[in-house]
Amino acid sequence: MQQRLINYVKAGYAGLFIVSTEEQRVEAEIAAVAKSTKFKLHAWSITEGITTVAETPEAIPDSQDPFAMLQAFDNLPERSILLCRDFHMILAERNPMTFRKLKDSLLLAKASNRVLVIVGCTLQLPPELEKEITVLEFLLPDRAQLNEVMRAVAKSAKVKICEDIADTLIDAACGLTTTEAENAFALSIVEAKEIIASIVAREKGNTIRKNGLLEIVDVKTSLDDIGGLENLKLDLNEKRHCFTKAAHDYGLPAPRGCLIVGQPGTGKSLTAQATASVFNIPLIRLEAGKLFGSLVGQSEGNWRAAFATAKAVSPCILWIDEVEGLFAGSKSSGETDSGVTNRVIKAILQDMQFNSEGIFYVFTANDIDGLPDPLIDRLDVWSVDLPTQTERESIWKIHIEKRGRKADKFKLPELAQKTDGFSGRQIEQVWLKAMNIAFNDKHREPTNSDIVKASSRFVATSTTMAEAIQKRRERLKNRATPASAPEKAKDMTRKLAK
Ligand SMILES: Nc1ncnc2c1ncn2[C@@H]1O[C@H](COP(=O)(O)OP(=O)(O)OP(=O)(O)O)[C@@H](O)[C@H]1O
Ligand SMILES: [Mg+2]
């Protein structure tokens, strides 16, 4: 990062925008750049105006106002860097006076070796200024930097770090900013008198969730929790070593990911979660609809921030759930420009193409229509349908056992027949209803007939959604590989309403 900044400064770039929430770390980096390029560093904030960053700081009077700041910037000596704090918020106001003045000032600055550096936590660069200002992503701290932070926290608290687990502790902090990591390490010391990976990881989960877009899913699902979908499970199992060092050394490229599309309640999200235990890497969930913000540039900025976190946590699974939301979300936001969706999709595709090492993407969706071809093209596409007779039997078995009952006490083929046309989700609901019936009857154990009785109270998904299901089947026919293994013709029943 520092070297890139030095290059930009030396090459005479007049406007830079650094996207980061880590103000202090960025400022320290810019100070180092100024020192190495022998540029004079000044900093501006709306409260203090411009001051020279030096042992004895000098303030430029009356330079608090953004317009006045730009005027003062024009008069700074040659070879100066002006760091502007919170200026992204001023840009968001879209004041034409500020835009015009900024453009003029940058033109002047180019001729006299002055650089304006905006530091902002979100990328809010109006299209009018895209050509004038170069955006730089400030990456989250790498392992070496986190190691330094950890050692510093441990030292100041006089706590020893067990070298055998040092790597695991750093793993737990990857994806956090330096301040967040510092807090997580310190909290662990307060709670446990030492740095413990599970506490740091828990704090990381909380911090990432608080940031809004991502969630680290605590995975408890394995492939054994999924009934049917044998083709998909087999494929994932075959890839299970792909993120190991051995596979990497062997020269095996890591797979890019998969798209799981199909009928509701059939195990798409369940499978996405299970991938984490197959590969034994963390699972980060991104809700596609949340990417879209109401401010210009915010959507792309959201993606960049989310991707930077995923990258820092990698190797990991990045699960983009309900990917249709990418489209619906853009319509409901304040960004009426339809180009916004395209720009976000383009950013996602570019990152997938060029920068995805260590990330396995799992997209889940009900429909494939509307998803961009280049996305479909880059992924293994699986279609998931309502479960077949054999699949229903295994779903029944899984759910009965999940609630601590023995599956051989029930007639699974009969239960599967009675629930023809039901989704996996509905089967679970029928089972819970049957347990409820039995519980209300003197807390006795549920029986086959309770389940049959309970199932009659439900209308199968195949009936309620007959038309949508049929249409979806047609759309997916030649575009996706069936996740379910082929079955004997007699077992293929997944009846639709007449
Ligand atoms: N194949 C399956 N095996 C076991 N349980 C299943 C299966 N399919 C669905 N279920 C049950 O139904 C619940 C819902 O499934 P899941 O969330 O994976 O559905 P989905 O396909 O993602 O649905 P949606 O399209 O509504 O998002 C699961 O938590 C699980 O209990
Ligand atoms: Mg789902």
Q: Can you walk through the features of this model?
A:
Helices cover 48% and strands 14% of the residues. Helix 13 links the parallel strand 10 (283-287) and strand 11 (316-321). The model is unreliable at 329-336 (pLDDT under 50). The chain has 22 helices and 14 strands. The protein is of the alpha/beta class. The protein folds into four domains: 2-137, Rossmann fold; 143-210, no CATH class; 223-384, 3-Layer(aba) Sandwich (Rossmann fold), CATH 3.40.50; 389-491, Helicase, Ruva Protein, domain 3 (Orthogonal Bundle), CATH 1.10.8. Bound molecules: adenosine-5'-triphosphate and magnesium ion.
User: Would you report the number of β strands?
Assistant: 14
What portion of residues belong to β-strands?
5-15%
**What integer is the average pLDDT?**
88
Q: CATH homologous superfamily of the largest domain, by name? A: P-loop containing nucleotide triphosphate hydrolases
CATH class of the largest domain equals Alpha Beta
Q: Describe the global form.
A: elongated
| CATH topology title of the largest domain | Rossmann fold
Spell out which ligands are present: adenosine-5'-triphosphate, magnesium ion
What is the CATH architecture annotation of the largest domain? 3-Layer(aba) Sandwich
